[in-house]
């Protein structure tokens, strides 16, 4: 079963409940389905993933409350300048994602198309290298406690998934390589804006990129606009992006660059971006001179959860992914070295 339309690369839909509560045979079947999806598209939708829908709904409610605060209040939890401490609030236009671009000139060209989004990042409370940056509690009482507990919900799912993937490859569990759960919970808000700005690529919601960690979970609202680039499409241009319609109650799971590398290219870290949703809303009744009324994209909220490996984990081709047909493609690298290189390109 897929969520595809004729023009969309198929994003398989997998019932993860069969892994969480199933027999050994069912677990192996689920592992094989996710492996297959990762090999073909790099993305898979999971239903019955174990994070209760009420918790997901509550997360979106907190996110809406957070972003509705005055900017001056949100800035009481500011994302520090630079790229080494990725926590706190980033206002509109502060971050520009990029795809493996490290050259300053190219980066400034990319930044000419701003991402119209604001974000709030938090991480594992035990991660001393990147302490969380919370609002004063009285500004949004309960927000911190909820985010800390939702982090746990998502981290638990990630560790289950790491087991599942090892089962697919018949290798020792990958969960211990993520023992410190150095993960990142991100709240994203894309405000309403004229559809023409997104369609003409004068602005982006989030520009084309791949994620740089190992695995990403993505919870999204019903607005739509997420697009992934068909991995079968050659070249690296703007062509080949297809919409990924949101699926109610399902979480989207995708492979990040570090996992692509770890799997020796078996699993694909696929380019994705967020553009105009398929159905923008009409605003107003047109101008006094009879000019066209402006189509406006409704605001969108999403909650990505990024996993990466422990800093000292050595990322080198997993044994299940190397054979005569698939020789080793990459040099070993520690997770920390890799992340540093990618983060440097994120902020100007
Ligand atoms: O908002 C979305 O749906 C995608 C977000 C995303 O790709 C990211 O934050 O890396
Ligand atoms: Fe992403």
Topology record:
Elements: E1 13-15, H1 17-20, H2 24-40, E2 43-47, H3 53-68, H4 71-74, E3 88-90, H5 104-111, E4 118-123, H6 143-169, E5 184-190, E6 193-194, H7 195-199, E7 206-209, E8 215-220, E9 226-229, E10 241-243, E11 251-255, H8 257-262, E12 272-274, E13 281-282, E14 295-297, E15 300-307, E16 314-315, E17 333-334, H9 335-343
Parallel strand pairs: 1-2
Antiparallel strand pairs: 2-11, 3-4, 4-5, 5-15, 6-14, 7-12, 8-11, 8-15, 9-10, 9-12, 13-14, 16-17
Helix pairs in contact: 2-6, 3-6
The protein binds 2-oxoglutaric acid and fe (ii) ion.
The CATH class is identified as Mainly Beta
Task: Tell me which oligomeric state these chains represent.
Answer: single chain
Q: Estimate the strand proportion.
A: 15-25%
Would you report the number of β strands? 17
- Measured as a percent range, the helix fraction is 25-40%
Bound molecules: 2-oxoglutaric acid, fe (ii) ion
How would you describe the overall organization of this protein?
This protein is of the alpha+beta class and 348 residues long. The protein has one domain (3-343): B-lactam Antibiotic, Isopenicillin N Synthase, Chain (Jelly Rolls, Sandwich), CATH 2.60.120.330. The protein has helices at 17-20, 24-40, 53-68, 71-74, 104-111, 143-169, 195-199, 257-262, 335-343; strands at residues 13-15, 43-47, 88-90, 118-123, 184-190, 193-194, 206-209, 215-220, 226-229, 241-243, 251-255, 272-274, 281-282, 295-297, 300-307, 314-315, 333-334. The protein has an 8-stranded mixed beta sheet. Helix 3 (53-68) packs across helix 6. The longest helix has 27 residues, at 143-169. The radius of gyration is 20 Å and the shape is globular. Mean pLDDT is 89; it is low at 1-8. It binds 2-oxoglutaric acid (AKG) and fe (ii) ion. Residues 186, 188, 206, 211, 218, 220, 226, 272, 274, 302, 304 line the site of 2-oxoglutaric acid (AKG). Fe (ii) ion binds at residues 209, 211, 272.
């Amino acid at each position: 079963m897929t969520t595809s339309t004729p023009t969309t690369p198929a994003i398989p839909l997998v019932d993860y409940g069969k892994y969480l509560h199933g027999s050994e045979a069912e677990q192996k079947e689920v592992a094989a389905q996710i492996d297959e999806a990762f090999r073909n598209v790099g993305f898979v939708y999971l239903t019955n993933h174990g994070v209760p829908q009420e918790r997901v709904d509550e997360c979106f409610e907190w996110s809406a409350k957070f972003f509705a605060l005055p900017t001056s209040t949100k800035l009481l939890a500011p994302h520090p300048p630079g790229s080494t401490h990725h926590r706190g609030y980033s206002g509109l236009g502060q971050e520009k994602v990029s795809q493996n671009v490290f050259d300053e000139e190219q980066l400034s060209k990319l930044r000419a198309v701003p991402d119209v989004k604001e974000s709030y990042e938090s991480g594992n409370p035990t991660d001393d290298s990147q302490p969380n940056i919370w609002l004063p509690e009285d500004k949004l009482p309960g927000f911190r406690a909820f985010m800390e507990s939702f982090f746990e919900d998502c981290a638990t799912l990630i560790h289950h998934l790491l087991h599942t993937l090892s089962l697919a490859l018949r290798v020792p569990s990958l969960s211990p390589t993520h023992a410190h759960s150095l993960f990142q919970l991100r709240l994203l808000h894309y405000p309403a804006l004229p559809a023409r700005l997104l369609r003409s690529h004068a602005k982006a919601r989030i520009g084309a990129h791949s994620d740089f960690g190992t695995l990403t979970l993505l919870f999204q609202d019903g607005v739509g606009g997420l697009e992934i680039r068909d991995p079968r499409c050659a070249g690296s241009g703007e062509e080949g992006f297809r919409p990924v319609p949101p699926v109610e109650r399902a979480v989207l799971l995708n492979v990040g660059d570090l996992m692509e590398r770890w799997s020796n290219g078996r699993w694909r870290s696929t380019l994705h971006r967020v553009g105009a949703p398929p159905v923008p809303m009409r605003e107003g009744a047109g101008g006094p001179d009879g000019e066209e009324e402006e189509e406006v994209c409704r605001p969108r909220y999403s909650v990505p959860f990024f996993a990466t490996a422990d800093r000292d984990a050595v990322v080198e081709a997993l044994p299940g992914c190397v054979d005569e047909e698939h020789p080793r493609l990459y040099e070993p690298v520690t997770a920390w070295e890799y992340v540093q290189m990618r983060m440097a390109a994120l902020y100007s």
